[in-house]
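Re: that backbone. Tokens:
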């Protein structure tokens, strides 16, 4: 394997692990797991192990919005005041489409978390932070700037329109219909993530448990736990019209913003979009305290690469690009 050296770091009995799957024409041609899901108990990573997806979550948040659009519950051109009437004037022209494509201009909520905060933020806390801002990075729709806060607002819009909790909406309309029984938008004390891996960060010669942070409970931008087995079901569903019809689905895979924070990649709805036609790559990464994720799809070739790790800074993009250059 061209990427064997990178995998060797995970192929040890005493370190946080990695789950790797390569899918070709609907079948898992490579499925390998390394390392531990829990360093204390010694439970190993398996294909059913659930990792926090971090920003790979955004493609599911986008699908929730597209599902509601398909059913005419909202329009992608709807503006924030429809859902948040007291949103500050500087953001009242922001559309759902701009939230999806990171072109809203919203300030980064992470920079405005009140000092001394000890309780994990939720999506509504993100809204409260953004409501207190009186300026933007740029006028909506004029530039790209990656925004976790925008996806927290999309989760709240899903709740406002559907009358369901965001986690419940995903479960009923995406996870359960696709047979993703182990996947969950995780809410501590409310839901369980079966076969859950704990997150770790290397500190010198050891790995310290860093499973949760102040932003870990924000669901819309990164709160889903899933496994390579369940993500394979998701991947295959995206070749069908099980959730939404093809014209709307293809909008998710179109680079509405031709530039992004990555060279040669534009941004669709929850996906980076690189190349066109038979060379198109749809991808996203996830990075948070204790977890890393990477998901690359090549629709024309019916090929996908999924990597999930329960450690920070796992270098998964390097591995993914070697598997599928």
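Recovered sequence:
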């Amino acid at each position: 394997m061209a990427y064997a050296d990178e995998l060797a770091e995970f192929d040890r009995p005493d370190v946080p692990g990695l789950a790797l799957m390569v899918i070709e024409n609907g079948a898992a041609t490579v499925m390998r797991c390394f390392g531990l899901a829990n360093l204390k108990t010694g439970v190993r990573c398996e294909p059913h192990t659930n990792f926090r997806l971090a920003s790979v979550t955004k493609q599911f948040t986008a699908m929730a919005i597209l599902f509601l659009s398909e059913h005419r519950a909202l329009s992608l051109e709807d503006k924030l005041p429809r859902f948040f009437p007291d949103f500050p004037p500087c953001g009242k022209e922001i559309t759902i489409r701009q939230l999806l494509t990171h072109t809203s201009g919203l300030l980064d909520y992470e920079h405005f978390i009140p000092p001394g905060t000890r309780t994990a933020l939720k999506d509504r806390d993100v809204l409260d932070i953004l409501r207190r801002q009186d300026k933007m990075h740029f006028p909506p729709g004029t530039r790209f700037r990656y925004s976790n806060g925008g996806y927290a607002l999309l989760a709240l819009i899903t709740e406002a329109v559907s009358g369901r909790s965001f986690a419940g909406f995903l479960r009923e309309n995406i996870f359960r219909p696709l047979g993703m029984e182990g996947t969950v938008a995780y809410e501590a004390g409310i839901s369980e993530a079966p076969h859950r891996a704990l997150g770790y960060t290397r500190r010198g010669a050891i790995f310290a448990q860093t499973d949760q942070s102040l932003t870990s409970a924000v669901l819309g931008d990164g709160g889903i736990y899933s496994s390579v087995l369940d993500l394979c079901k998701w991947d295959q569903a995206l070749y069908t019209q099980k959730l939404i019809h093809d014209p709307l689905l293809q909008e998710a895979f179109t680079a509405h913003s031709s530039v992004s924070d990555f060279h040669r990649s534009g941004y669709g709805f929850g996906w980076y979009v690189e190349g066109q036609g038979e060379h198109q790559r749809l991808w996203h990464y996830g990075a948070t305290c204790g977890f890393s994720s990477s998901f690359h799809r090549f629709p024309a070739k019916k090929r996908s690469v999924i990597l999930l790790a329960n450690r920070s800074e796992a270098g998964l993009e390097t591995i993914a690009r070697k598997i599928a250059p």
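The longest helix spans residues 148-162. The domain at 4-323 is CATH 3.40.710.10 (Beta-lactamase).
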